[in-house]
Automatic annotation (TrEMBL):
Lineage of the organism: Eukaryota, Viridiplantae, Streptophyta, Embryophyta, Tracheophyta
Organism: Camellia lanceoleosa
Alphabetic keyword roster: Membrane, Transmembrane
Keyword Transmembrane included in the entry's annotation: yes
Keyword field contains Transmembrane: yes
Protein name: Transmembrane emp24 domain-containing protein p24beta2
Domain of life of the source: Eukaryota
Amino acid sequence: MKTRSPEFAMVATLAILWSIRGVIGIKFVIDREECFSHNVEYDGDTIHLSFVVIKSEGSWHYAPDGVDLVVKGPSGNQIHDFRDKTSEKFEFVAHQSGIHRFCFTNKSPYHETVDFDVHEAHFSYHDQHAKDGEAIFPCFLCTIYVS
């Protein structure tokens, strides 16, 4: 009998937890600029996003500066602009369905590691009920596209 590797078990567990939470998260290292896209399915969906810059333990290149994040809607309109932040949480209502872009900029001369999470909710409050012909989609299978 062949047993599965611990790595397979870890990946399977993470996949199950990821689908239950309805949250997309990514950890990446940024040199200068990194952009991500997320397809918002429905007008009026609430988008929750958060990020944190994970500082390295090496004090020889610690910089107190954060990163910049610009959030743009499908038509290119700027939704929000964060400057020099090491962490932030933000929520907005998508007035258009379609591809929303999240572009991070690192002005530091050193690489930074960023933990970035996006959650899309069809309703702002969990106690709201669907109306006739309307379904609730909490974004269990959303995708972030790296551009």
